[in-house]
Design brief:
The chain is of the alpha/beta class and 548 residues long. The chain has three domains: 179 residues, 3-Layer(aba) Sandwich (Rossmann fold), CATH 3.40.50; 243 residues, Glycogen Phosphorylase B (Rossmann fold); 45 residues. 36% of the residues lie in helices and 16% in strands. It has 18 helices and 16 strands. The chain has an eight-stranded mixed beta sheet, with helices on both faces. Strand 4, helix 3 and strand 5 form a beta-alpha-beta unit. Helix 6 crosses helix 14 and helix 11 crosses helix 16. The longest helix has 21 residues. The radius of gyration is 29 Å and the shape is globular.
Length: 548
């Protein structure tokens, strides 16, 4: 019988589903879990659970019967953490805004993160920035632990490989399966458009319509499209449902915070009674049961496996700037990144920008990025848009080919790609706000200027300006591109010194040994985990403070 603690772990995506979900909400928590798992394995037995509601308590009861400690780590933002489990639960999450969600909406108490944190009794965050926000909302004595993902150990060998590589003028290659758009292969970006442009062919004149008294044949009735059908009139249930929905939204957005606590409780009880009366008086129409249609034999055959995407070979030289991002995520600020690069190096053919993006961005965002590039044509620098999933060896090849990693985001909960490149000794261009303040150093990066601006919590359906994020100073991005290019080609050893400083800083920050000690303290494996039971949701407090 094992005496080591059982550590249950869960994230929304697994290794199979995350390949096609890059850029989706919460997808990065899978990579955080995968980084933690080997370190957690040194502390106890790690068990992955796919459905926490169905699996966690059964495993917890089995551990109790054996006299064995058990804890559940849920890698998700607090509003998605289950609060009905008997097993001690610790949320592991990141946050990049200036305040935690501390209000309730959509009849879900978990939308107020303080409710979940008080229920769980402790939390693990991925940065000091998030931990400070938790203490601000929950009190200075709330047990919260800032623990980064252990990125250093996996990327450290690349530091020596990059040191053994040749100069910037030598060709570097990385290959992957996906799609590539290369500005050097597109004639639109190589030179000015020809002028005058070839005129379009003349449009043939349309024949005049026949006179009213002509003997023209009548159109075939079968070829005439059917008349448009007007939408069916709404029934009583739908009209009442719409009215109640708008009334509830008005109450929550306009009146809720103006009423005393006791009156809000009375109104909430009346609302529950009203819903029961509404369902009794206006029941849903019964669904007619129909036999399932017979499936044709052709549809019963197994679907063919999807074809593999073509292999792309990208050859790079000169000073290479790399960013790994999902352009559909507005926090990544890709437009400032692209425009500053193009303006800084519009006459410099030795500068290349590689944007590594998920496959889904090709359908949803490629036209927007292409339009931004076309506004600067012609330009001498090179932009490579790489869409696809990189395996470990392919990712390592991209790291070895990179001169600088670039991050211009409005906020970061951690930024695993930036940590990985710094661990390999790749200097960066980045701001030092939010989570990046923990590890971005002036001796290893060109620091970008930024300032606070109003913003919304990303999953708040009300879209209210309840928090703040950082706006980047565009001119500082352009200046950092120019300064970093000069340092890379100076030959005075300054670039190599930045790489060594980055490598050493990440060893101190996120090496496996340090992360293991922090996790052991957070899980309290030497003693019994304190259990704090669920409590009622606190009253709305605009200052995000909870009374003792």
């Amino acid at each position: 019988m094992s005496t080591s603690p059982m550590i249950l772990v869960h994230s929304e995506f697994d290794a199979a589903s995350v390949r096609t979900a890059l850029g989706a909400p919460q997808y990065s928590y899978h990579f955080v879990l995968e980084g933690y798992a080997p370190i957690l394995g040194r502390i106890g037995e790690v068990v992955h659970v796919a459905s926490p509601e169905d699996e966690v308590d059964a495993l917890y009861d089995a551990c109790l019967a054996e006299g064995r400690a058990c804890v559940f780590l849920c890698f998700a933002p607090p509003h998605l953490v289950p609060v009905t489990l008997r097993c001690p639960t610790i949320p592991v999450f990141a946050w990049e805004f200036s305040s935690l969600p501390c209000e309730q909406w959509s009849d879900d108490p978990r939308s107020d993160w303080r409710v979940v944190l008080r229920h769980c009794g402790r939390a693990i965050t991925l940065s000091t920035h998030t931990a400070d926000l938790v203490r601000e909302a929950m009190g200075a004595d709330f047990p919260v632990f800032a623990i980064p993902t252990p990125s250093y150990d996996a990327m450290a060998p690349l530091f020596d490989q990059r040191a053994e590589g040749g100069g910037f003028e030598e060709e570097r290659v990385f290959a992957f399966r996906g799609a590539v758009c290369d500005s050097h292969a597109d004639p639109l970006f190589r030179g000015p458009l020809p002028w005058p442009m070839t005129p379009p062919p003349p449009v043939a004149a349309e024949e005049p319509p026949p006179a009213a008294d002509s003997q023209a044949p009548m159109p075939d009735p079968e070829g005439v499209p059917p008349p448009l059908l007007l939408p069916a009139r709404r029934g009583a249930r739908e009209r009442v449902s719409l009215s109640l929905g708008y009334a509830e939204a008005w109450y929550r957005d306009v009146l809720f915070d103006m009423l005393p606590d006791r009156l809000r409780v009375i109104l909430a009880r009346l609302a529950r009674v009203g819903r029961r009366v509404y369902r009794a008086l206006l029941p849903r129409p019964a669904m007619q049961e129909t036999a399932p249609p017979e499936m044709p034999e052709a549809m019963l055959e197994p679907e063919p496996e999807p074809e593999l995407e073509p292999e792309q070979v990208v050859r790079l030289s000169g000073v290479v700037y790399t960013a790994v991002l999902s352009p559909a995520d507005g926090r990544k600020n890709w437009l400032d990144l692209v425009t500053a690069f193009l303006w800084a190096f519009r006459e410099e053919p030795r500068a290349t920008l590689v944007l590594k993006m998920p496959r889904s961005a090709r359908e949803s965002m490629h036209s927007h990025i292409y339009h931004a590039l076309s506004r600067f044509t012609p330009f001498a620098c090179r932009v490579v848009l790489a869409y696809g999933f990189l395996e470990d060896a392919e990712y390592a090849a991209l790291v070895r080919a990179t001169t600088y990693y670039v991050n211009v985001s409005h906020g970061e909960g951690l930024c695993l790609p930036l940590m990985a490149f710094l661990s390999a000794g790749v200097p960066a261009i980045a701001p030092d706000h939010t989570a990046m303040a923990d590890y971005v150093r002036r001796d290893a990066a060109f620091i970008l200027r930024s300032g606070l601006e109003h913003n919304v919590w990303p999953f708040d359906p009300r879209d209210l300006f309840t928090t703040m994020r950082y706006r980047l100073d565009w001119s500082s991005i352009e200046e950092a591109f120019r300064a970093s290019f000069r340092v890379a080609l100076s030959g005075d050893g300054a670039y190599d010194a930045m790489g060594r400083a980055a490598h050493a800083a990440m060893r101190r920050y996120c090496a496996g040994g340090r992360v293991r000690d922090l996790l052991a303290e957070a899980l309290d494996v030497r003693g019994e985990m304190p259990r704090i039971g669920p409590e009622p949701a606190p009253a709305f407090d605009p200052d995000c403070e909870i009374a003792a």
